[in-house]
Amino acid sequence: MTPPGVERDYDLSRLTTIRTGGRADFFARPGTVDALVELLGWAEREGVEVGVVGSGSNLLVADEGFKGLVLKLDGDLATIERDGDGGILCGGGARLPQASARAARWGLTGLEFGVNIPGTVGGAVKMNANAYGGDLSRVLDWVEIAGAEGVERRVPAQLGFEYRRSNLRPGEVVTRASFALEHADPSAVKETLAGMREQRRAAQPSGIKTFGSTFKNPDDPRAEGMTAGRLLDAAGCRGLTVGGARFSEKHANFVENSGAATTADVIALMAEGRRRVRECFGVTLEPEVQLLGDVDAGGLYE
Description:
- By secondary structure, this protein is an alpha+beta fold.
- The chain contains seven helices and 16 strands.
- The strands form five sheets. The chain has a five-stranded antiparallel beta sheet with strand order 6-7-11-9-10.
- The longest helix is centred in the last third of the chain and has 19 residues, at 263-281.
- It starts with 6 loop residues before the first strand and ends in a 10-residue tail after the last strand.
């Protein structure tokens, strides 16, 4: 018997910004820690795989869907609150741009970089998100992680942070995160946020079906300091199309769904872009996008 609130055969494409992918066998929106732990315990006892969807901005779902339980945090698990005098406490399902804006309103600085990361706090912790010179690990105080056995608190040193990754395991879900910030003039912080938003609007596609950066910026010396987007552009990938998927004309490291794209189209396009960059520069780009379900992504890792 499934726990309360679990839906069957749920269309996951509506939860992703690229709008591709199939359906989940089971889906739930837990709003409390107790409900989340109950769901994780049920999944472990039943041998059901667990996936988590945040803002869906950096996610590709298999066209065949996900044979398991997909969770999207809600309610108490998506709140943003003051935490003492100099910090904020966020649910794992809270959106990071909203947390950045709220911090600015409260006259707190250190989380401004999050305004241009279109994901949730939990996803940001899992992926060690950073942008525009900001570093999540520098302002993260602690996180609480839920699993089938309950909840435990961890500090950044226990999260195994590396570039765009952490050591969180499948079935572990960030329920809360506390950020230690500094006091600042609210108007100055808001001005910084406005500048960052404008910088993003000028450089990246918006108002269309797309997801965040497709490939990580390489540290290979053969890239000569070029970003993934510049490498893809130089390799002739700007506007390149496979099926309904194309590399954006505005920023070559963004993939757009120009119509009825499938996840397979997106993977094939990414693989071709990766091949072209390797052929032109000898640089092997590493995908930044997350996969949910049985996605045939061999061309992205060979």
